[in-house]
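Page 42, continued from yesterday. The earlier attempt failed because a stray header line got pasted into the input along with the sequence. Redoing it now with the clean sequence only.
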Amino acid sequence: MFSLGSAILEEYGFRGIVFPKVMQVVKGSSFRKLMFGITISGVLFGLIHFQNIFYQPF
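This time it went through. Structure tokens are written below.
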């Protein structure tokens, strides 16, 4: 249950909060907003999970 809850909250955080906020900040066409939103939220998501590479075996 803990794993499911953290996954849901994580998805909500990045797709429901970070992505829309980035889209609001970026100026320009809707395509540009979409690309920046996807890129920034994806990079932040990756950076949050990058720590796992040092603590978990492949």
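Notes: The first helix runs from residue 2 to 25.
Reminder to self: strip header lines before submitting.
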